[in-house]
Amino acid sequence: MKIERDFPLKKLNSFGLNVKAKCFVELTSIEEAQTFIKSGKTEDRSLVLGGGSNLLFTRDFNGLIIKVNIGGIYVVKEDADYYWVKSGAGVVWHELVESCIKANFGGLENLSLIPGTVGAAPIQNIGAYGVEIKDSFEALEALNLETGEKKYFNNRDCCFGYRDSIFKNELRDKYLITNVLFKLTKNPIIKTHYGRISEMLEKAEIAEPTIRDVSEAIIKIRRSKLPDPDKFGNAGSFFKNPVVPIEQFNFIQKSFSDVPSFPQPEDRVKIPAAWLIEKCNLKGKIHKGAAVHTKQPLVLINHKNAKGTDILDLSKKIQQNVKNKFGIALESEVRII
Q1: Where do the domains of the chain lie, and which CATH numbers do they carry?
Q2: What is the pTM of this model?
């Protein structure tokens, strides 16, 4: 365990931005993490880094970056219907999904190929294709960043919401997640109703899909519309899909009969942010080194040696355009530093 100074973060953030951290430390075990926290070596400002896939650095980080690299995937118990699978926070998310699919543990297959680490997943309450992490989440273990004290959070404790949790709000930057426990079914419920999953399965002439089939269909869909991260740095979906009152949706529908929608509780409707952005004719828009992806306008890319401020400025232009045209305030899904 070594604290490094002026540490380059270009390879540790998915936008590939050329920024540095004042201090950097990598922690590979719970014991090491507790020892480090209790040593009092933390800076006034610290940031726990997972896969760096949901962050936009607009400048060098004047504080301590804590890189969590705690590994391991274990079945800790089972009963007639479920397996409880524990994963270290540093495990790459898709590696966990793949491991569970190979063992025929159902519940995570619709979350295939989402970037990032297991420890970051509950913070964001990651979701895709009709599934969110909260649906299979059982509990997590975390360390208080001031005291090193270990604490457990169950599903209810996490206050999960749409791309939201207690760790993005009142407990932001107060805990370091060390491992996460999932409850996965022995009798998988196949979910193909969202997006193009059914279409892909039909093309492949798969009438009774397995969780592997669903995962492979989702991977094909994601790769067909998302940029190659080796060519264009990005953080996946930059904005949340807005949820609006049904009255506002009805008003929009009068002018745009093709507006896609997903009913939500309490007479509210979710509208895809990608559709809103495309209707503002922003697909492919370039701003300095940043751009809106040509296939998926919800994704902003590092088009050509962008600075974090280039990407931020582009995101603000998109928000203003959508606000002016539809009266909807898009909210960033990416954390801006």
Answers
A1: 4-68 (3.30.43.10), 73-185 (3.30.465.10), 233-336 (3.90.78.10)
A2: 0.89
